[in-house]
């Protein structure tokens, strides 16, 4: 039974991470600019946040729902502001011709920023609520072992997607020129800025 929970939650974690949203755009951009390690660190931060929400969901999705209702506006304001800043930075920066060796501080910063941004995204909470209900985990799990298995499965499934994404972009990076990367950087900046503005307008009730 435990292995069934693991594979079920692994698919759930992969499904939650799969949609192309702001974190995916950020992961792609960081991989293009800073190499595979920064991309993987971004994905690891997102997967860690998914594991945190999976822990809450394993205790019962009503707990996740109350978090969403109590703090969604402030989470939107925070996440939207950060996305707008990163979008502007992406628009104004230029890609480097060579990837520098990833410094521990840069890798740590990529991890922490992705972790906080994913935690501040109410859509992540909504996704967990919906998918946990669909998977039959809505009322909480019967034992600590089952809960830990589900959390581990969600983390592994999410991390699998980020590994595939950052690895694929890293391979692609070697085959595209600086000019193409420059345009990709601008496009990613516009996408991040668009996500941020939409999130802010929604939090302010203007959308």
Task: Spell out the key features of this protein.
mainly alpha; 8 helices
Walk me through the structure.
- By secondary structure, the protein is mainly α.
- The chain has one domain (2-203).
- It is 82% helix and 0% strand.
- It contains eight helices and no strands.
- Helix 2 (22-34) runs antiparallel to helix 3, helix 2 (22-34) runs antiparallel to helix 8 (178-203) and helix 4 (61-92) crosses helix 8.
- The longest helix has 32 residues, at 61-92.
- The chain is globular and about 55 Å long.
Q: How are helices and strands ordered from N to C?
A: HHHHHHHH
Q: Largest sheet, described in full?
A: none
- Using the alpha-carbon principal axes, give the shape: globular
- Class based on secondary structure composition and strand pairing: mainly alpha
Low-confidence stretches: none
Number of domains: 1
If helices are DSSP runs of H or I spanning 4 or more residues, what is the number of helices? 8
Indicate the proportion of strand residues: under 5%
**Helicity, as a percent range:** over 70%
Query: N-to-C terminal Cα separation, in Å?
Result: 45 Å
